[in-house]
User: Which sequence fits this backbone?
């Protein structure tokens, strides 16, 4: 399948070692600006919008093999033979798949709060709630938040999702393609059997203390040289909840030799 040209933001000195950040499901590059600015002190940071997310093109197919091919295409277009790779949640699965199939193009691999397994939960309720918002009746973003309140009681998560709601010419619209995302969400909670069964190099897995996404045995099966570290007092959104500790773990790993 043909890769798409991903929209991205970049931070830091273009002469520094490249570090590519891959966001999670229903997120975008804008969610990573705080972390990207911190990491840009030592790296040239690229934060990508994945297909069907952010400002990147919409495409009918969305699974980990095709999204990994988007990363390879991005690197080819920028002349990046190798880069550090950091991914959270869905982005972590993209990073893992990329590392398994393009290991020579990964300098250091870092995965935030996700493992290479199929998860049983789904996104159906969230996607349904977003689709039910009557966009043609909205007068402001607060109005949209009220529509989501019952289905998505966590206010911070509602506000995170509403970053995908944009206003143009007096009308609100979702910048994510909810139809394609609904049809392909089962690929996101899954993880296909890799053609290359294990990753031969070290890898860092960063877990939130109060999150259950990473179980060591599910990591070491595919990444036998992995190191797992935990960020205290955080859940799945560890890079938002503790950005300083998160960036410290990244920098220590990259410069550990």
Assistant:
């Amino acid at each position: 399948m043909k890769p798409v040209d991903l929209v991205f933001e970049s931070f830091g000195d273009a002469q520094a070692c490249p570090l590519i950040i891959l966001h999670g499901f229903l997120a975008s590059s804008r969610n990573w600006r705080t972390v990207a600015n911190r990491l840009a002190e030592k790296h040239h940071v690229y934060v990508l919008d994945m297909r069907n997310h952010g400002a990147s093109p919409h495409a009918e197919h969305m699974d980990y093999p095709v999204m990994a091919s988007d990363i390879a295409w991005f690197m080819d277009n920028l002349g990046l033979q190798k880069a550090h790779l950091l991914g959270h949640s869905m982005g972590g699965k993209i990073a893992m798949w990329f590392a398994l199939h393009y290991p020579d193009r990964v300098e250091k691999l870092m995965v935030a709060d996700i493992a290479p397994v199929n998860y049983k939960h789904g996104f159906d309720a969230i996607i349904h709630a977003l689709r039910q918002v009557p966009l043609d009746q909205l007068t402001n973003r607060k109005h949209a938040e009220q529509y989501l309140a019952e289905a998505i009681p966590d206010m911070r998560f509602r506000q995170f999702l509403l970053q995908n709601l944009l206003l143009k010419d007096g009308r609100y619209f979702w910048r994510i393609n909810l139809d394609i995302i609904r049809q392909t969400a089962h690929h996101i909670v899954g993880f296909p059997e890799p053609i290359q069964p294990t990753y031969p190099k070290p890898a860092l897995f960063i877990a939130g203390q109060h999150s259950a996404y990473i179980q060591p045995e599910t990591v070491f099966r595919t990444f036998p040289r992995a190191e797992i570290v935990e960020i205290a007092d955080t859940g799945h959104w560890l890079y938002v909840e503790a950005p300083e500790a998160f960036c410290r773990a990244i920098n220590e790993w990259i410069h550990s030799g």
In short: The chain has a mean pLDDT of 94. The beta strands are 8-11, 18-22, 44-48, 83-88, 106-112, 165-168, 171-174, 203-208, 226-231.
